[in-house]
Specification:
- It is built from four helices and no strands.
- By secondary structure, the chain is mainly α.
- α1 packs across α3.
- The longest helix has 28 residues, at about 1-30.
- The N and C termini lie far apart (about 40 Å).
């Protein structure tokens, strides 16, 4: 079980780095995206400001990692027959409540 948690933590960090790079790429190249990607872009930008100069990115990566964790708890499987929730599964809280755990940028 511990190894799985370590793998998941590492995957979340890798995804956070990808989100950070992709949102910056959208800014630099002034790309237009589809509606779903634009929502992700806007959500990331609420918690991580654009990169205008060199800085330490650990806080940005941690904020996006928290965002991924919160959104992962809210995810509804497109294949509900493959997994059935049990009484012991944690109940997800409303997304707006969970997002307050992430520090918005000033």
């Amino acid at each position: 079980g511990r190894k799985l948690h370590e793998v998941l933590r590492n995957v979340k960090h890798c995804l956070a780095i990808e989100f950070l790079c992709n949102t910056q790429g959208i800014d630099l190249l002034e790309l237009k995206t589809n509606t779903a990607l634009n929502e992700v872009y806007e959500l990331v930008r609420q918690h991580v400001k654009p990169i205008k100069e060199d800085r330490v990115f650990s806080g940005d990566i941690n904020n996006i990692t928290k965002l991924i964790s919160i959104l992962g708890a809210e995810f509804k499987s497109p294949f509900p027959d493959l997994y059935t929730a049990t009484e012991t599964d944690p109940k997800p809280q409303p997304l707006s409540t969970n997002l307050s755990q992430i520090k918005p940028i000033n």
